[in-house]
Amino acid sequence: MNTPDLNLLITLDALLSEGSVARAAERLNLSPSAMSRALARLRETTGDPLLVRAGRGLVATPRALDLRERVGPLVQEALGMLRPVHVLDLGQLQRTFTLRSSDGFVETFAAALLARIAAEAPGVRLRFVQKTDQDSAPLRDGRVDLETGVIGDTTDDSLHSRILFHDQFIGVVRAGHPLSTGKVSAKRFAAGRHVHVSRHGRDIGLVDEALQAIGLTRDIVTLVGGFSAALALVRDSDLIATVPQRHTEKLRSDLHSFTLPLTLAPISVSMLWHPRMDADPAHRWLRDCVRQICA
Predict the structure, then answer these.
(1) pTM of the predicted model over 0.85
(2) Whether residue 261 sits in one domain with residue 176
(3) SS in 3 state form for 29-89?
(4) Mean per-residue pLDDT, 50-71
């Protein structure tokens, strides 16, 4: 029996991760025609079409979906075994890291992080993806190299983590809003019309619990899934948003911010990574860059 070309595993991982021949080719520095030929070889080797045309794009077959969950970790483990452990040469490092984070983190820290990386390792590219949930699967299967966020009860305790910074919630309104002048009491705050941020669609949050503790409730007019959306609404209305201070620093530069007349516990924003990446020199360097930029 002929031994399959194991290099096809790297190609398969790129194709299934990107879902596009063109993007997979770019990721592996190949021409689209070379990637198309590689896909043809994969189809012949696996006996499955893997990716089939649907409209203008490609969709994965059931066999491809099954392989996608397994091939990523397999490729990462193989590359880790073959990667040299000697001193890291940042000037020669060619690698793409995927960071999963919120829009606020990208707005606040990405520019400084990219500048730091360009100065130290010009061959490194960062790929930011939106964090929409607390699922740890992307870290486990290698689709994501590093993640930022608040560690919660559902966070996989097998992951490694380190606190990046502490943050606190503040109130935000448009310039000229009634709450932009005078002392903001709990009653004035609660009496306004609010936009509530909940990634999971919860109708109430920490602010509502703090208000209830002092016998008040607020009028939640609308609910959105992220802080950037909340601030966009605040900018063009009389709504009030409650957002983390440091995480939204650049998103609210033209808005009025005020200290909440409530007692809310501070939050700790951490970075998380899978244990298999802990000793990887390049990954360790990336973690140091993120930590120092956020410090």
Answers:
(1) no
(2) yes
(3) CCCHHHHHHHHHHHHHHHCCCCEEEECCEEEECHHHHHHHHHHHHHHHHHHHHHCCCCCCC
(4) 86
